[in-house]
Design brief:
NASP-like, 79 residues, mainly alpha, histone binding
């Protein structure tokens, strides 16, 4: 599916440029297109699902860093 391949390329570009949120959105769209055509567990979906997971992991790391920095200096007893 040509549209999904273009989306994967766009998502990779976003990931390399550090625009993780856009990468997640594009990879999710590509996953949806491929899953609709081939099914959720098809081999054709593997690359898109992998890249989507990779970008979601990077997004989680970014968010964790932001939250971790916000709590610096706060005593643990106040959690």
């Amino acid at each position: 599916m040509e549209g999904a391949k273009k989306l994967i390329g766009t998502g990779n570009r976003h990931l390399v440029m550090g625009d993780v949120v856009s990468a997640v959105n594009v990879f999710q769209e590509a996953c949806g297109m491929l899953a609709e055509k081939y099914g959720d567990t098809a081999d054709e979906c593997g690359e898109a699902f992998f890249l989507c997971g990779k970008s979601l992991l990077e997004l989680a790391r970014m968010e964790n860093t932001v939250l971790g920095n916000a709590l610096e200096g706060v005593p643990e007893e106040s959690f």
